[in-house]
Specification:
Two copies of one chain form a homodimer. With 406 residues, chain A is α/β, with parallel strands linked by helices. Chain A has three domains: 70 residues, Winged helix-like DNA-binding domain superfamily/Winged helix DNA-binding domain (Arc Repressor Mutant, subunit A), CATH 1.10.10; 132 residues, Nucleotidyltransferase, domain 5, CATH 3.30.420.40; 168 residues, ATPase, nucleotide binding domain (Nucleotidyltransferase, domain 5, 2-Layer Sandwich), CATH 3.30.420.40. Chain A contains 14 helices and 15 strands. Chains A, B: Belongs to the ROK (NagC/XylR) family.
């Protein structure tokens, strides 16, 4: 039996300093530019502690002093911001028809977003690792050429990811037991680079929690649409991963045992109604004639165009998909009671036509009054939310107050 | 937008002492009898700190020294245990046909378990509050007569409970917007007694996490069978409550939209297949002739007797109920990835006949390999798990390292 991670633990002065460093970094992230006195006033830390911590963080180039001063009585205060220049982090995502790499600095500013068409579902895991490594290496070369140090890289996968960054199963990619983190580390040969793997939904939820319209919300679910459908669950401000990291598996939730057949062998799974191949196959039946779709973007654009022309079949089909999305979101709201379920991927792209039906179904199926305060909404982060979350995840070590190795 | 509860916070020496007090209490709870040296060796706290903390905890009668000494080289060490004598806590539960009050001491030893037949579903909220208060007052009188101080009381309700201990909805009781905690505080007139309310499933999960066969498991779900069906979710060692405390609402999960009608107006909800009235109504159709069942225990005993006689209709019915329980448990396992889903209430009473079918369905419907490491099992805590969890909850303040008011 694994003992709890949240049990009381002995605490010492080193922990206190690390925790307080994290407090200072968080305050500056949210309120920059701000002065040492602001930090002390708002965090409850005393001024001498703030001064010592800020000195260290400036020396390690996590914070920098700006030329700005505060307009106030007495000696002008030097204003602080996060230092975006020295460090960067990478996030990547394996989509249904593309790979994405995205870099941010410590302040969350996007430094680059590159996409490369790549059909991971019809490629081998080894080909995918090679393509990811090549794309990451190009990004690292660009960033180091700008004088930045890349702290880490986190990749989002549409499937189950274990604590070692291996993928026991990713049905949408046809993967079983792929040691993705280890293989990618080996392919990159960058021993100082922290390489992690997570589910696409978890990383999208992190991006939503940091950068989305519901940023800072303590209880948040991101329902990620794609070739698979997954849920990233933020509870009490942290990702809910479960015992082995497999939490959020919602794609094969049975909505109706008499529903359409699913690749898993059952009927009526969420993904069989609302996954990207199901939506394209249903709304654009002509695509089936050409074999499996490998390039989804143009098909989604066709669906958008037909919906804008008020094509009745497409509108009815989208409303039906929306019902199923709303049903799944209601299960998440009833079980997890978040403040928002945010839909991403093609659910967000098609939101103008999906959301009205989804919200009606959601309202009817949530049990607590007013859906327990939960809103159902579309992500505003666009189609690289997972990669953005990957970069956010790769910065977590620094944000927790630990200093990057010198 | 509510900001996160788990964000980094400034830490000071008072927090350190409180945290370390909790560490010492936890170590003694798990490893008593143990010496000051044992505590220092196993917790990483230094001996002087342990000595100071233990002195304070002995003085406040949370720990006591036993006559035992450790058999070892050097000066004999005085052994410590939790002091069970001075304090007690109460847990209560509102069942389908009874009220239960249970008391434990700080060490978790049961001091009393009293049941009173009471048909809450056919009583008014005010009658229920009066009956709860009368039962609690009798228990408090008994405990104070033994020289104990009662620190708190926590009541488990089969319904939604908000952060103020009010019950916006409890379908099984016919309640809407009952200010239970406030009403019970007013009825008890014990201003020094902390009175809290939680869902029956949350308290049962706490009991399971502390006292059950899966005690100490960080990721655990308790699926509570009764007139309603709820899930208490322990994630990372703590209850997952969600934004407004409404997490764990699984009773109206649609298993089959073509299934039996439910009191909620939909069809095929979990509770319509597996709730106590549904199980009794289906397996003992003769009970329907006498109007709604108000006394479930004898009916469950009849079902057990028929099952033991291998009554084929009852066995087939129980297997079918088991399938639905397994289906619901698989949804919880796929979304939350706990180490165990433990079923309680009448699911545990009927486990010999429910579990085989439940486990087969669970295995077939969990998506991760080996169900993500999740076991499906029956609670061993009996029919007062919620009340036991209530007493556990009422001790949480002291266990977190805060000292009881002098």
């Amino acid at each position: 039996m694994i003992s709890s991670h949240n049990e009381p633990r002995p605490s010492d002065l080193g922990d206190v300093r690390t925790a307080n460093r994290a407090v200072v970094l968080r305050h500056v992230r949210r309120h920059a530019p701000c002065s040492r006195a602001d930090i002390a006033a708002h965090t409850g830390l005393n001024k001498a502690t703030v001064s010592s911590l800020v000195g260290e963080l400036v020396e390690r180039r996590l914070l920098r002093e700006t030329g700005l001063t505060e307009n106030r009585v007495g000696r002008p205060a030097t204003m602080l911001v996060l230092d975006g220049a020295p460090y960067a982090a990478l996030g990547m995502q394996i989509g249904a028809d593309e790979l994405v790499v995205l870099a941010t600095d410590l302040a969350g500013t996007r430094l680059l977003t590159w996409r490369r068409a790549f059909a991971a579902p019809s490629s081998s895991p080894a080909e995918t690792v090679r393509a990811l490594a090549a794309l990451a290496r190009r990004a690292i070369t660009r960033l180091t050429g700008q004088g930045r140090r890349v702290l880490g890289l986190s990749v989002g996968v549409p499937g189950l990811v274990d604590a070692d960054g291996a993928v026991p199963r990713a049905t949408a990619l046809g993967w079983r037991d792929v040691a993705l983190a280890a293989d990618l580390r080996a392919a990159l040969r960058e021993p100082d680079l922290a390489v992690d793997v997570d589910t696409d939904a978890n990383l999208a939820a992190l991006a939503e929690h940091r950068h989305g319209a519901y940023a800072g919300t303590s209880h948040l679910v991101h329902l990620t649409g794609g070739a698979s459908v997954g849920a990233g669950i933020v509870a009490d401000g942290r990702l809910l991963r479960g015992a082995r990291g497999f939490a959020g598996e919602v794609g094969h939730l049975t909505l109706d045992p008499a529903g359409p057949g699913c690749a898993c062998g059952r009927r009526g799974c969420l993904v069989a109604y609302a996954g990207l191949p199901a939506v394209v196959g249903r709304l654009l039946p002509d695509t089936r004639q050409d074999g499996p779709v490998t390039d989804f973007l143009p098909e989604i654009q066709r669906i958008q165009a037909l919906a804008r022309q008020d094509d009745p079949t497409v509108l009815a089909g989208l409303a039906d998909v929306g019902c199923h999305v709303g049903h799944a979101a209601s299960v998440l709201a009833n079980l997890i009671n978040p403040q928002a379920v945010v839909v991403g991927g093609h659910f967000a792209t098609l939101a103008p036509w999906l959301l009205p039906a989804a919200r009606a179904e959601f309202a009817a199926r949530t049990h607590a009054p007013a859906a327990g305060g939960c809103l159902l909404d579309a992500s505003t982060l666009g189609s690289s939310a997972t990669a953005l979350g990957g970069a956010t995840a790769a910065l977590a070590v620094v944000e927790s107050g630990r200093l990057p190795a010198a």
